[in-house]
Amino acid sequence: MSDVTTAEFNEDGKYIRKIRSFVLREGRLTKGQSQAIEAHWPAMGLDYTPQPLDLSEVFGRDADTVLEIGFGMGASLVQMASAAPEQNFIGIEVHKPGVGACLADAGEANVTNLRVYHHDAMEVLEHSIADGSLARLQLFFPDPWHKKRHHKRRIVQADFVQLVRRKLKIGGVFHMATDWENYSEHMLEVMNVAEGYKNQSTTGTVVERPDHRPLTKFEARGHRLGHGVWDIMFERIA
């Protein structure tokens, strides 16, 4: 699991905008990760700026763009980008070894439709992503903050989902996945009352894992142990 962002929320679930809202997590890089950053950052790395990206300039084409917040070590993100060459993919991760691992995998797979940020997800989403520009936003296995007193720290809160909605095109999808049933219930609770969204589930609850989200090793192991994973997909309708 990945720390999605180091942004903080107050007791009412409001995002706290501070001058320095995050610390980049350097971690211990392997030689391979370090070499991958050196080799592939010029082509695939995105340096944070507070101005919105021109996606057609970044990717050299106009195509649907998928953004993933907190991609961890990046294996499934690289798989997705490799499997859908007709789409653009952007990943955000604050943990440097994860960025290195992702770039190493992407380089090995000769993926050209992926770009990555090593930066705070909230800042990137707020300032670097143009409104109405995303076909899908992915939030997979965010920190569940499983103790009840910490639930307000969960990233899926009313303010955050409206920020996501602003960045999605009409018809764009906010796709969440969690292996904590309680968090899936929290996600549904927040999303069911969120303005401008419609649940893509025919039952009004969760959906089956869609083909575009690869089964992770962690998840496959969980299935063998009888652990559940819950996918939730809401479409922007207004």
UniProtKB/TrEMBL annotation:
Protein's recorded name: tRNA (guanine-N(7)-)-methyltransferase
Known role: Catalyzes the formation of N(7)-methylguanine at position 46 (m7G46) in tRNA.
Binding site for substrate: 147, 179, 216-219
Enzyme Commission identifier(s): 2.1.1.33
Family annotation (NCBIfam families): tRNA (guanosine(46)-N7)-methyltransferase TrmB
Binding site for S-adenosyl-L-methionine: 68, 93, 120, 143
One protein family per Pfam: Methyltransf_4
